[in-house]
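Worked example 2:
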Amino acid sequence: MKPIKDAEGNSINWINYKTGVRHIYFRMDADKRKATVSIEIKHLPKDTRLEYFAKFEMLKSYFSKIIQEQWHWQQKFYDEDGSEASRIMVELEPVNIFRQEDWPAIISFFKERIVLLDRFWKDVKFQFESGI
């Protein structure tokens, strides 16, 4: 992914993507069952987290226009630490990060989605920068 530029043509660390907005994270993850790309809203009081999620929901049609596939919108889920959070995510199944023959599919899955997610974020980030 290193040679791939962001939506504005700049070099970027895709693995450690910085949204620039506290408590909003872009995640790419793969394990022995699936690969996921997600936007997570975490580490906030419930009311504030739900307000951020509502902002994303207001942008859902624009998100769908850019991403061009159906993602799962979860107002409430529990992360690996058992903390309540919100997320918007898509999965690729069945793939296994430990099976080398799955690596091209996983890399392609990540690459296509994180680049589109970056394009979406560059257009809407300003709506989240001022907080709730």
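The mean pLDDT is 93. The helical segments are 46-58, 60-67, 103-124, 126-129.
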